[in-house]
Amino acid sequence: MAVSGASGYAGGEVLRLLTTHPDVEIGAVTAHSSAGERLGAHQPHLRSLADRVIEPTTTATLAGHDVVVLALPHGASAAVAAELGDDTLVLDCGADHRLTDADAWTAFYGTPHAGTWPYGMPELVLDHGERRQRDLLAHVRRVAVPGCNVTAVTLGIQPGIAAGVVEATDLVAVLAVGYSGAGKAAKTHLLASEGLGAAVPYAVGGTHRHIPEIEQNLRAVGAAEVSVSFTPTLVPMARGILATTTARLAPGADAAAVRSAWEDTYAGEPFVQVLPEGQWPTTAATVGANTALVQVAVDERAGRVVTVTALDNLVKGTAGAAVQSMNLALGLPETTGLPVEGVAP
Ligand SMILES: NC(=O)C1=CN([C@@H]2O[C@H](COP(=O)(O)OP(=O)(O)OC[C@H]3O[C@@H](n4cnc5c(N)ncnc54)[C@H](OP(=O)(O)O)[C@@H]3O)[C@@H](O)[C@H]2O)C=CC1
Ligand SMILES: CC(=O)N[C@@H](CCC(=O)OP(=O)(O)O)C(=O)O
């Protein structure tokens, strides 16, 4: 198996998970400007791979691998994937192949649409619970790994939409997000003097590129019409997303129906846990784990449901989702090689 973008945050996290995956042998590690350097210079925490040499990302270096993970900047993956055979399993951690609507892609990303691949969110409820997305991932050879913020919002609110206990036309999502979500290349995000001790909103006012992806997911769950107001805020932590999503309670729904919608949706899910009533998720409890922690409550006064999801953007938000989808595509047990325990404090 090859990992492209191996010097970056997402590629590094894929490699960390693969070092303990029993069915995977790590082959080429490739990147761009760091080609020719030791992997250990970029990923000093990956001791067993430290002496690997980063290769350039070319057809030749990726050829001959059964599985290729692409963790490249937006726009770079389509050309690379086109050179890989149809029998190679390619998992794209970038956004290029997530959206089905080419117009929505162009509106939010400003480039031509590269196409649509099977979507790598196994827990996504389809058609009000008839199926889950995992049912569509067996034997696929292309996977679009979801956006990390998208995963947090979708997992948080989808039980209410599937069960019809919330309205999907007035969703408000506000997120606290860690800096690693922006990637190593985002140097402006790394000015410690500005970032430490500050909460910094970005992509405010309906401009964030994850909005059409969230709406696409919630339509797949069963919402006829979806509208989401989405506001992320950078907070001084390396990893983590805490997504708070609120929605109007549907007519006739009550707190008991809301509780059972959330608990029933995630009862059998290995990587999504609805916490006991009254206990709220924290990002700290998910660091390093392929786990999303979810809680829900009804704000009777406001007539709204409030759901909070915490996850590690680099694990359940990217690399863990990639490995989970890889397992499904290869016919391996879905949980293979994926930690559910976090690191604390
Ligand atoms: N960080 C996160 O939480 C998440 C990231 N993702 C997605 O994963 C992808 C990677 O993100 P992330 O790891 O954060 O980014 P980084 O900036 O940390 O890493 C980018 C990687 O891509 C390589 N690269 C840059 N340009 C090219 C190119 N033209 N051809 C080949 N390789 C190139 C870099 O190599 P080099 O260093 O050698 O130049 C580096 O290995 C992005 O699409 C991102 O949106 C998705 C979900 C969450
Ligand atoms: C802090 C930060 O900037 N986070 C990124 C998350 C990126 C992500 O999930 O990946 P894709 O870009 O592949 O969709 C953001 O909000 O855009």
Describe the structure.
The structure is a single chain. The chain is α/β, with parallel strands linked by helices and 345 residues long. Helices cover 25% and strands 19% of the residues. It has nine helices and 15 strands. The protein has helices spanning 9-18, 59-62, 77-82, 102-109, 148-163, 192-195, 211-221, 255-266, 315-330, and strands at residues 2-4, 29-31, 55-56, 67-70, 89-92, 125-126, 131-132, 142-144, 171-177, 200-201, 228-234, 241-248, 272-274, 292-299, 304-311. The strands form three sheets. A seven-stranded mixed sheet has the order 10-11-9-12-15-14-13. It is globular, with a radius of gyration of 19 Å. The site of N-acetyl-L-glutamyl 5-phosphate has 10 residues, from helix 5 and strand 11. It is found in: Cytoplasm. Pfam families: Semialdhyde_dh, Semialdhyde_dhC_1. It catalyses: N-acetyl-L-glutamate 5-semialdehyde + phosphate + NADP(+) = N-acetyl-L-glutamyl 5-phosphate + NADPH + H(+).
List keywords for this structure.
9 helices, arginine biosynthesis, oxidoreductase, Rossmann fold, Semialdehyde_DH_NAD-bd, 2 domains, NAD binding, 345 residues, Dihydrodipicolinate Reductase, domain 2, 15 strands, 6-stranded parallel β-sheet, binds NADPH dihydro-nicotinamide-adenine-dinucleotide phosphate, amino-acid biosynthesis, alpha/beta, 7-stranded mixed β-sheet, binds N-acetyl-L-glutamyl 5-phosphate
